UniProtKB/TrEMBL annotation:
Protein name, per record: SRPBCC family protein
Short name of one Pfam family: Polyketide_cyc2
InterPro entries, sorted: Polyketide_cyclase/dehydratase (IPR019587), START-like_dom_sf (IPR023393)
Protein origin, superkingdom: Bacteria
Length: 180
């Protein structure tokens, strides 16, 4: 098996809330801004977008970089990954009116080395998205968000990432030259 092989992962999280699409979109369009109340930045790296949910806006969360590729006002926003970060693909938020309100779906489609996706990223992504959907529901119901306990495997992965980032930080931006 080649080490350059990649896995295609498609992952969907969704939640229906008793609200209009306009109410839900009002929350989605604030993603990555100072007024963002959906992204669970109390326990995940904050999402930052340099121009909010607008085509061409750049940003990301933690080491994951992407830009806003497409927006259909009130309906969906699509983000494309920066391939320099090792991922090809994107993710999107879509709104769909239902008989009882609005369904917000987040779909991830990414190509990357399989072990990175399934062994490291997917459990973190799943936990983050469930926190985001809990924040959506709390905002719509106008109640405080309640955080569920993170699985031990998620806590271990987060610790590993924090340690790797801390160890690599002193070397970021430095070039190594031979003394001679």
């Amino acid at each position: 098996m080649s080490t350059s092989s990649s896995t295609v992962l498609r992952n969907v999280h969704q939640r229906e809330v008793p609200a209009s699409a306009e109410e839900v979109w009002a929350l989605v369009e604030r993603l990555g801004t100072a007024a963002d109340c959906l992204w669970p930045s109390d326990r995940w790296p904050a999402l930052r977008l340099d121009r909010g949910v607008a085509i061409g806006s750049k940003g990301g969360h933690g080491p994951i970089r992407y830009h806003v590729a497409e927006v259909e006002e009130g309906t969906w926003v699509r983000f494309a990954f920066d391939p320099a970060g090792g991922f090809v693909g994107g993710h999107e938020f879509r709104l769909e009116s239902t008989d009882h309100g609005t369904r917000l779906a987040h779909e991830l489609e990414v190509h990357a080395p399989g072990i990175v996706l399934t062994g490291l990223i997917l459990p973190l992504h799943d936990a983050l998205l469930e926190d985001l959907l809990d924040d959506l529901e709390a905002n719509i119901r106008r109640v405080p968000s309640r955080r569920r306990r993170l699985p031990v495997g998620v806590c271990v992965r987060r610790t590993v990432i924090d340690v790797v980032e801390a160890l690599s930080a002193p070397f970021a931006g430095r070039s190594v030259t031979a003394a001679g």
